[in-house]
Amino acid sequence: MKVIDLINSSKNTAFSFEILPPLKGNSIQKVYNVIDKLIEFDPKYINITSHHSEYIYKTLPDGSFQKVNIRKRPGSVAIASSIQNKYGITAVPHIICKGFTKDETEYALIDLNFLGVYDLLLLRGDVKTLEVGQKTDMYHEHATDLQQQVNDFNKGIAVDGSTFEANETMFSYGMACYPEKHEEAPNMESDIFFLKEKVKNGADYLVTQMFFDNEKYYAFVDRCRAEGITVPIIPGIKPIVFKNQLTVLPKIFRSDIPEPFATELRKCKTDDEAKAVGVEWCIQQCKDLIAYGVPSLHFYTMMASDSVYKVAKEVY
């Protein structure tokens, strides 16, 4: 069953979460441990983040440097298949533009189709600076470009323009949205214009960047509805777990932290105190969202799975 159908058929506010692939050298058991912790809340689907390779510089014996391309985490394709087969829960791998060529994306779609994983989350991903000599036309610049490739694949059109027999089960997908505006958008009007394009071209649902002020989410949803965007807009939720996230998260994700919440976090002397404050704020935030009638809550668990468990225990 597609994610959109799982969301729409849920009698109550659906529960889902996102996991981070383990670092190189660690087993998939680390992923299973997070799932085992949260499975009692009946997750409708589980997202798996995707990460491109990174370059490091190794110092050689003669003092010179060698640039080495390393992959720090396994790919989301293999993990998605493992989760779906082990738990029977719909797995949603992230497919991203940055750091992956159009050909690599096509290979991923071929593998996912073979493995029976048909739900995706399409994202631009973190900006990655191209190396000197790399051709920019090998990569998608925007998530809407990536969306077109997936749509073409569903029709049996390969990235090189050749055709093949279209799959019996087409890929369905969600895409991202930003209640407080994408950092590169010149204004909210522009942001919503492209959001409408995503939906018009096939996005079944939208998942928000993390936010801590529900009023901004409500205002964003109202504005989207006024613009004719009717698909579910799923709140992306993350409980704060460290003191420094008071300043780090707004800087990285451009997410405002309401002053009452910020005031309580400033009082914290330790990360444990901040974690407790973060859980309590998140509980109240989720209860308010459920009362508002959101179709689903989607939790970001990176470094926060214990907190997500405590929150879910109170609201599900």
Can you walk through the features of this model?
With 316 residues, the protein is of the alpha/beta class. Helix content is 41%, strand content 17%. The protein contains 11 helices and 11 strands. Strand 7, helix 6 and strand 8 form a beta-alpha-beta unit. Helix 10 packs parallel to helix 11. The longest helix is centred in the C-terminal third of the chain and has 22 residues.
Compact overview of the structure:
α6 (188-200) links the parallel β7 (172-177) and β8 (205-208). With 316 residues, the protein is of the alpha/beta class. The strands form 2 sheets. The protein has a 9-stranded parallel sheet, with helices on both faces. A two-stranded antiparallel ribbon has the order 3-4.
Question: Keyphrases for this structure?
Answer:
single chain, alpha/beta, 9-stranded parallel beta sheet, 11 helices, 11 strands, 17% strand, globular
Helices and strands in order, then pairings?
Elements: H1 3-9, E1 14-19, H2 29-38, E2 43-48, E3 54-59, E4 65-70, H3 76-87, E5 90-96, H4 102-115, E6 119-123, H5 143-154, E7 172-177, H6 188-200, E8 205-208, H7 214-226, E9 233-234, E10 236-237, H8 245-253, H9 259-266, H10 271-292, E11 296-300, H11 305-315
Parallel strand pairs: 1-2, 1-11, 2-5, 5-6, 6-7, 7-8, 8-9, 10-11
Antiparallel strand pairs: 3-4
